[in-house]
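Q: Give me a protein?
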Amino acid sequence: MNTKKIVITGGPGTGKTSVIQALEDHGYYCFHEVSREIIKEAKKKGIDQLFLEDPLLFSELLLEGRIKQHRDAGESTSDLVFLDRGVPDVVAYMNYFGNDYPPVFNRVCREYVYEQVFILPPWKQIYTDDSERYETYEQAVEIHDALARSYTEHGYEPVEVPQGTVAQRTSFILSHLV
């Protein structure tokens, strides 16, 4: 089976998790953000902010997790799978923070391809902090730009999802699938 892999991306606090949950509630197979699990595991080991303490290790773990999700999505029996972020997100964050990374990061962006990418823009009214989010709203705007650049540089044309209720955003995504 040729499963269509669709990425939902965007900066922190843009509503990705809510949209993914709504898609899941509609019966679609979804993969959730892997970074929260990596952050929680690091905190259990006494590392408060793994990304800040060892950005390369954190990003390597993210890359592994996102590659695994891509492979698992490809083995799915579903025609369509949604993923909360994709491989190019890792490069976007490394570029945003000015961190060096090995060439393999860009290579895997070309190897693990998605059929479509939707990007949720910054939205100040819904932005909130939580225990795994350390970016300010202003940083979230800059990260959005880095994400858009990363996906474009890796050959995608991200579709921007307009602001609206979770139902409206979900409906937009479903009606704009190619």
About this structure: The CA atoms of residues 2 and 81 lie 11 Å apart.
